Amino acid sequence: MAVNLDRFAQGLPDPQDAEVMAYCEGCGREIYEGEDVYVVDGVILHAEWDCLYQYIDPEFMTVEEALGLEAKK
Ligand SMILES: [Zn+2]
Questions:
Q1: How far is the CA of 54 from the centre of ligand 1 (A)?
Q2: What's the CA-to-centroid distance between 5 and ligand 1, angstroms?
Q3: Is 22 inside any structural domain?
Q4: 46 has which bridge partners?
Q5: 24 CA to centre of ligand 1 in angstroms
Q6: Burial of 55 (0-12, 13-18, 19+ CB in 10 A)
Q7: What separation in Å is there between the alpha carbon of 12 and the centre of ligand 1?
Q8: CB 50 within 8 A of CB 27
Q9: Measuring CA to CA, how many Å separate 4 from each of 7, 54, 64?
Q10: How many domains does the chain have?
Q11: Is residue 25 in some structural domain?
C-alpha cells in the first residue's frame, strides 16, 4: 500500500491552509499556527531579529546623549 508523504516533504505548511493565529507587531504580517514567536510584554512577534528590532525601534546615540549629558570636548 502506498502512503502519501507529500505533505511532510514540503517543510513549512502552505500559508493558504495554515490558520492565522495572530499578527506580528513588528512587521504587521500574519503569524500562522506552528510558527515560532517572540513575546515581549505580552506582544507577539515573529521569532526573527527584524521583527524584534522593528517593534522595539531603539534609538541610536552616544551614552552621553542618552543620559542628557554634553559630551566633553
Ligand atoms: Zn514579523
A1: 8
A2: 30
A3: yes
A4: 37
A5: 5
A6: middle
A7: 16
A8: yes
A9: 8, 41, 63
A10: 1
A11: yes
58/38 Cα distance (integer angstroms): 17
Residue 54, in any domain of the structure: yes
Cell digits of residue 24: 506580528
Residue pLDDT, tens place only, 14-73: 656 789 999 999 999 999 999 999 999 999 999 999 999 999 999 999 999 999 997 666
Instruction: Return the HEC string of 6-55.
Output: HHHHCCCCCCCCCCEEEECCCCCCEEECCCCEEEECCEEEECCHHHHHHH
Half-sphere CA count of 20, side-chain side, radius 13 A: 7
Structural domain containing residue 54: 18-66
CA dist 33 and 38 (Å) reads 14
Residue 70: its pLDDT value, please? 77
Residue 71 within any structural domain of the chain: no
